[in-house]
Specification:
The protein contains one helix and eight strands, in the order H-E-E-E-E-E-E-E-E. Strands 1, 2, 3, 4, 5, 6, 7 and 8 form an eight-stranded mixed sheet that branches. The N and C termini lie far apart (about 65 Å). By secondary structure, it is α+β, with helices and mostly antiparallel strands. The relative contact order is 0.18.
């Protein structure tokens, strides 16, 4: 093997090792628990399943930017709609207590927090009451 090829392979291995080390470090902190709390939240349940959006009220705000946010909700009201349209009517509402959801991000206006990118299964986990 010639010297240039050995150096190229060595440099590639060094870069790959450095990238793996950095990714490993960030992956460990990406899932760190920095949960927030909402006293009340609402989520629409459509014929196709739960909405990926949750509207929270009286929420604490995250202290850091994260890839995923863990939101502990005291009272989660789920409105089950008859169709995919708001004017299609409400079939029923369901109130769940002490639930935890995970969401990708949020926006906030006038004391209301709009959590978005919340996977459908994220609303089923019950958390211990604070």
């Amino acid at each position: 093997m010639n010297l240039a090829l050995k150096r190229l392979l060595g440099a590639t291995a060094a870069v790959a090792t450095g990238v793996a080390a950095l990714l490993g470090t960030s992956a460990g902190t990406a899932g760190a628990d920095d949960s927030v709390h909402c006293e009340r939240a609402e989520r629409g349940i459509w014929s196709e399943g739960p909405s990926p959006d949750v509207t929270g009220h009286r929420c604490s705000m995250p202290t850091t930017k994260r890839r995923w946010y863990t939101v502990e909700v005291d009272t989660l009201v789920q409105t089950h709609y008859k169709t995919e349209y708001l004017d299609g009517g409400v079939d029923r509402t369901e109130t769940l207590h002490n639930r935890t959801i995970r969401c990708l991000g949020y926006t906030s206006t006038n004391g209301t927090v709009h959590w978005f990118g919340c996977p459908p299964g994220g609303h089923t986990r019950q958390h211990d009451r604070r």
